[in-house]
Amino acid sequence: MEADFEPGMVLLHGANGQGKSNLIEALYMLAIAKSLRASTDRELVRRQSVDGDSHAQVSANIQRRGGDTRVQVDFKVAANGSQDGGDTSELVPAEDFTVQKLVRVNGAPRRASELVGEVNAVMFSAQDLELVFGSPSTRRRYLDILISQLDRQYLRSVQRYQKVVSQRNHLLKLVRDGRSGAGELEFWDDELVESGKYIMFRRASVIETLSEMISALYGDLSGDGESLRMAYRPGVQAPTEHGEEEFGDALKTALVAARPRELAQGHTVSGPHRDDAVVMLGGIPAGPYASRGQSRTAVLALKLAEASILREERDDEPILLLDDVLSELDAGRRAQVLDLAKQYQQCFITSADPALVGGRYLSQMARFAVRDGGIEAVGTGEG
Predict the structure, then answer these.
(1) Helix/strand/coil (H, E, C) string of the chain?
(2) Least CB-packed of 22, 94, 179, 266 within 10 Å?
(3) Do 304 and 341 form a contact (C-beta atoms < 8 A)?
(4) Directed axis angle between helix 136-150 and helix 292-314, to 10°?
């Protein structure tokens, strides 16, 4: 699949199951260096296609004020052992193939983490309702993706923190089983505090900004007078001041208090891996009480606020990726969303029914038909 997209709004339309969402997810992969839905690169591989060595590439040339940038992500799939082209209807077991991911920016090899921030993008799909109804881990991932596009130090801190928690959990089990001394935990405690305090500090700061933005956006989108905000619930006793050192002190205190429990359970029980960012509607958590319409509007407000933060802090327009956003909105809210979307230099919108867009907006869009995994330009306007 290959296409050229001019600035402005781009409508990708076609029947369900033709590849619209795949294209949107491929574009988003160039922003965050991994799939939004798959937990591992193996899950991206269509196992019926594994036959010897194979290759796939997602790439784009991005035109921006400071010059063009080419970003690409290559996947090399190698079958383990003999794949002799037998019955391809059989799924190849995951252990029978390997996936190598290679990232390049302007032709130069990069680590996957170095791709984050090269292309700023905001994606909204039906799965994003989990930001309201889902687990804290979903909201932590949302914050991690947003802040990592703004701040490379944050991304490094998250990666370091995850490794420290893993090592510390291993050591806690050894201490519990009498195979190591408790004194060995001091080093990992310090490492946990060093990376964890910055994560909590940045999350608190961004959540405060998000909360202010979504309050106004939700009011405009819903018109129902209810207030929307986001509240930070750190995985330690929240300090009065949300400074980096204050979070570090709070994390140290939490680790000391939790030591007996951690040794009994064999894992780390305090820290930013236990954070939550609760979506509050009318002063109460939205998850147990919000209707589907309210939650969809709340997530739209969150995503539009995310785009505003990226534009303001990076001084660069993010790409908006709206995957089947319009289908569950009434005509008034669809118009509001499209009016906001057209303020950005580029916005991709998928829909199985172009009529949902409306003639006024269709006339401003480049239209592409997506069929059987291919894409074809069909012009601009209603025709």
Answers:
(1) CCCCCCCEEEEEECCCCCCHHHHHHHHHHHHHCCCCCCCCHHHHCCHHHCCCEEEEEEEEEECCCCCCEEEEEEEEEEECCCCCCCCCCCCCCHHHEEEEEEEEECCEEECHHHHECCECEEEECHHHHHHHHCCHHHHHHHHHHHHHHHCHHHHHHHHHHHHHHHHHHHHHHHHHCCCCCHHHHHHHHHHHHHHHHHHHHHHHHHHHHHHHHHHHHHHHHHCCCCCEEEEEECCCCCCCCCCHHHHHHHHHHHHHHHHHHHHHHCCCCCCHHHCEEEEEECCEECCCCCCHHHHHHHHHHHHHHHHHHHHHHHCCCCEEEEECCHHHCCHHHHHHHHHHHCCCCEEEEEECCHHHCCHHHHCCEEEEEEECCEEEEEEECCC
(2) 179
(3) no
(4) 20
Which tokens go with 342? 């057209």
What single letter denotes the amino acid at residue 334?
A: R
Query: CA-CA distance, 79 to 82, in Å (whole number)?
Result: 7
Contact 223, 272 (CB under 8 A): no
The residues near 129 (Cβ < 8 Å, ≥ 6 apart) are 292, 295, 296, 299
* Backbone phi, psi, residue 277, to 5°: -130, 95
How far is residue 82's CA from residue 305's CA, in Å, rounded to a whole number? 51
Q: What global pTM score does this model have?
A: 0.88
Tokens of 192: 């946990």
What does the pLDDT read at residue 261? 96
As assigned by CATH, the class of the 129-290 domain is mainly alpha
User: What does pLDDT average to in each consecutive run of 10 residues of the chain (383 residues)?
Assistant: 90 92 92 82 69 80 85 86 48 67 93 89 90 96 95 96 97 95 95 98 97 92 86 95 96 96 96 97 94 90 94 90 88 88 92 89 92 86 55
Write down the residue that tokens 């570090």 correspond to.
Answer: 248
Q: Which residue in 302, 290, 79, 88 sits closest to 211, CA to CA?
A: 302
Phi and psi (nearest 5°) for 348?
-105, 130
Amino acid at 178: G
Domains of the chain by residue range:
48-111, 129-290
State the amino acid at position 212 in one-letter form: E
